[in-house]
Amino acid sequence: MAKKSIPESPPRGFTAKFIEHLPTPQKRYELADKKTVGLRLRISPGGAKTFIWYHRNNGKLRLHTLGQFGDDPGKLSLSAAREELQKLKRQHEAGTLNAPSQGDPKTVSELAEIFYKRRILPKRKRPEVVRDVLDRDVIPKLGRLKLRNVTAARLSSFIDGIVDRGAASHAGKVLAIIKQMFGFAEGRGYVDRSPAFSLKKEDLGVQDNRRERSLSLEEINLLWKALETAPRMSPQFKLGLRILLLTGVRSGELRQAKWTDIDLRKRSWHIPAGNTKNSKALYVPLSPLAASLFKELKDVTGEFGWVMASPESLANPKEEDKHVDDKALARAVNRLLKMKVEVGGKKQPFLDIPKFVPHDLRRTLRTHLSKLKVAPHIAEKCLNHSLGRLEETYDTHDYYDERKAALRKWAHTVDLVVNDRDNVVVMRA
């Protein structure tokens, strides 16, 4: 980003709205909060907005990372960042800012905090996932152990305990974080060698949390019609789930979408790099059916900045302007699957299909694109998947027109399935 295009800090200090609307740059830059001396915001090309503070310790300038801006768990609001900075300043004045736990860690608990602050917060888009594992699993069981006493056998026993309680899939997640944390410790010189280096998931009985669920056309028909009549489900969730099915985007990409990203005239949806898993911006072509769903959704949430405005925002439009949280769509699907109706004096499922989660709608689209004979590289591009390092390096074409045709074909198939037509037969491959 050219220097002249860097936004200027508001003369009265940052506001949450100002930070939210900062553009994603091509080159990292920083802005100073003119209301709180020392507070700075670093904006990265990936879209991350991180609060930082520079201070001097023994004559050397040091950087202290406070955390990423945001309302999600594990992130900091603007007011929380200002409060955190004042706390750090008091510690600095008292000479306790660089206490032993801030230097070389002695225990697993101290290592976990440094690992989270230095490695996870700046790099992970959802640091709260790691924070939850550290707080629920790692620190309660291993936190008091001295780093010098942590062995591969001790860590194996720890993972065995998670597997034995029937959480073999979760054990895989914990193992991955443990290996990353001790790899970080080795790289920093806190330990000579990671005690988790030799641990292998196949030796510990952990399971990959790999899902294979995709919905058939018959199930799509049942889901679509259930969403039409589902009681006690907010319209933005009903429409949002259908949009996920038709576009194949990740639920987080829809959750973080703003109305300024949606061009209904051109039937195009811009997903900024900061909202995608691979940090690559994407323009999603909208089929006429998908565009019509967005138009309906705009009647519900159009007065807000967020496409998926939270129920709290809808209830208090003058006070709240937030998007739904990261579990909201999953909860909506879960409620739909647990809902019962009374038929002939007996309670039956309102939607009688096997369990699925929102991410399975993405796999559903990909599966049916193959059945519709869409070329594999086009189907993968519809999901914003990488085509491999070599091809990504030399082929920068975004295949927009091809993706547009593929998503139109998919929307047409869904339309034929969910709208009853006596004289139409859906051809399968």
Count the DSSP helices. Answer: 17
Q: Kindly state the mean pLDDT as a whole number?
A: 86
How much is the radius of gyration in Å?
25 Å
Q: Outline the biggest β-sheet.
A: 4 strands, antiparallel
Task: Give helix % range.
Answer: 40-55%
Low-pLDDT runs of 5+ residues are none
Principal-axis shape equals globular
Class by alpha and beta content: alpha+beta
Q: Which percent range describes the beta-strand content?
A: 5-15%
Structure summary, number of beta strands: 9
Measured distance between first and last alpha carbons: 48 Å
Q: What order do the SSEs take from the amino end to the carboxyl end, as H and E?
A: HEEEEHHHHHHHHHEEEHHHEEHHHH
Trace the largest sheet across and list its strands. 1-2-3-4
Brief account:
By secondary structure, the protein is of the alpha+beta class.
Give the secondary structure arrangement, pairings included.
Layout: H1 16-20, E1 29-32, E2 40-43, E3 49-57, E4 60-68, H2 78-94, H3 108-123, H4 127-142, H5 152-164, H6 168-188, H7 201-204, H8 217-229, H9 235-247, H10 251-255, E5 262-263, E6 268-271, E7 282-285, H11 288-301, H12 311-315, H13 328-338, E8 340-343, E9 346-349, H14 358-371, H15 376-382, H16 389-394, H17 400-418
Helix pairs in contact: 3-4, 4-6, 5-6, 9-11, 9-14, 15-17
What keywords describe this structure?
globular, 3-stranded antiparallel sheet, 429 residues, 10% strand
Write structural notes for this entry:
By secondary structure, this protein is of the alpha+beta class. Helices cover 46% and strands 10% of the residues. The chain has 17 helices and nine strands. It has a four-stranded antiparallel sheet with strand order 1-2-3-4. Helix 5 packs antiparallel against helix 6 (168-188). It is globular, with a radius of gyration of 25 Å. The mean pLDDT is 86.
